[in-house]
Amino acid sequence: MPYPEEMIAPMRSELTDNGVTELRTADQAKAWLESNKDKTAMFVVNSVCGCAAGAARPGILLSLENEVKPDAVATGFAGNDTESVNFIRSLVPQAPPSSPSVYIFKQGKPVAYVPRHVFEGGHPESVAGHLQREYEKHCTKVG
Amino acid sequence: MATLQDRDAELHDSTVVVETSKDQTFIGRYLGFDEKGNLMLGSLDHFHGGLGKNVERLEQALQWGVWASIDKAFLPQEEVTRIDLLNRAPWRQGN
């Protein structure tokens, strides 16, 4: 059962107001990956939970202040944007569904995955640090 | 010495690894205690043997997350010999 849109609207806009592309359907997610197939792309599975609010969303935004970061960043909301989220999840079948979570793709292939437990009990700074270490490994964009 | 309840704030709603005196390992979401004082775990998986016998599975869980095979479990508190956050990888600590 999806969450009421009015309830999650501010959780969505915390990311989309900061330049993160929202993907709601599988076709949108496929097109996004295809259009970034020669770049690095990060997909954020957003969520209603406290660790998304307190750690994941602010930490992700903080991480994107890094010089080195993905070329493209998109998001889908767990429970509501099931098509796009399930499509992205299908590309990393060894990872159980969880949210919040982050997938990083390079040239269309998954190269990093950050599961929910990394965000649990974390702080934005620790989340940003974890993501920035992944960016340093896989990304080249200097923002 | 801290009791499990003393650690409630630290562990609540986080993914934990639990070892029991019955030579079992559980990994799942810490949910607190029920009215009988049993430790509640949600969305969990369970392995035979303690942490040291399940290193590969635990490393997989650390990297990818937990494939939940059990919706909820209630563990008698007195059987819990070790509990810590998955993120801390307690099986690597050697004690």
Task: Pick out its properties.
heterodimer; A: 143 residues; alpha/beta; Glutaredoxin; B: 95 residues; SH3 type barrels
Radius of gyration of chain A: 14 Å
- How does CATH name the architecture of chain A? 3-Layer(aba) Sandwich
Distance between the termini of chain B: 17 Å
Class of chain B in CATH? Mainly Beta
The strand count of chain B comes to 5
What count of domains describes the coordinates of chain B? 1
β-strand amount of chain A: 15-25%
Let me know the average pLDDT of chain B. Answer: 93
CATH fold title of chain B: SH3 type barrels
How many discrete structural domains of chain A?
Answer: 1
Protein chain pair with the most extensive contact, residues per chain = A-B, 15 and 14 residues
Can you offer a commentary on this structure?
- The complex is a heterodimer of chains A (143) and B (95).
- Chain A has 143 residues and is of the alpha/beta class.
- Chain A has 6 helices and 7 strands.
- In chain A, strands 1-4-2-5-6 form a 5-stranded mixed sheet, with helices on both faces. In chain A, strands 3-7 form a two-stranded antiparallel ribbon.
- In chain A, a hairpin with a 2-residue loop joins strand 5 (101-106) and strand 6.
- In chain A, helix 2 packs across helix 4.
- The longest helix of chain A is centred in the C-terminal third of the chain and has 15 residues, at 124-138.
- Chain A starts with a helix and ends with a strand.
- By secondary structure, chain B is mainly β.
- Chain B has a single domain, classed as SH3 type barrels (Roll), CATH 2.30.30.100.
- Chain B is 15% helix and 40% strand.
- Chain B is built from 2 helices and 5 strands; from the N terminus they run H-E-E-E-H-E-E.
- Chain B has helices at residues 8-11, 55-64; strands spanning 15-20, 24-33, 39-48, 70-75, 80-85.
- A 5-stranded antiparallel sheet of chain B has the order 4-3-2-1-5, with no helix packed on it.
- Classes of the chains: A alpha/beta (143), B mainly beta (95).
- At the A-B interface, helix 5 of A face helix 2 of B.
